[in-house]
Write a structure and sequence with these properties.
Distance between the termini: 88 Å
Mean pLDDT: 85
Largest sheet: none
Strand content: under 5%
Number of strands: 0
Shape: rod-shaped
Order of helices and strands: HHH
Structural class: mainly alpha
Radius of gyration: 33 Å
Length: 103
């Protein structure tokens, strides 16, 4: 009777080890694993940076829209936009091209 009990214990130990290995594998390499978590955190950081950049660009465009409204029309901005769209510049105008938007 003790031999049968020993065999049962060995079988249960084997099943326990298999389950431990199975869950350990998925903890490290599974779809929702620790490695995936690290990848998601990196992705989140880059997306947050992109969001902040987009938010800054949105604020810049909103200010430009406010300055182009009839109630608060900025003459310099209107002339600048007209010159860009039509390609006409006065002979004494000096054009400075900058890659950074003006604030």
């Amino acid at each position: 009777m003790e031999k049968r009990f020993t065999g049962r214990v060995n079988f249960l130990a084997l099943i326990g080890m298999c389950l431990t290995i199975y869950f350990s594998y998925h903890l490290v390499f599974g779809e929702r694993s620790l490695l995936s978590l690290a990848s998601l955190k990196t992705s989140q950081a880059s997306l947050e940076e992109e969001y902040l950049h987009t938010l800054e660009e949105k604020k810049h465009l909103e200010m430009k829209v406010v300055r182009m409204r009839p109630e608060t029309l900025d003459g310099d901005l209107a002339i600048e936009q007209m010159s860009k769209m039509l390609g006409f510049y006065a002979p004494e105008t000096q054009v400075v091209i900058s890659s950074k938007p003006r604030t």
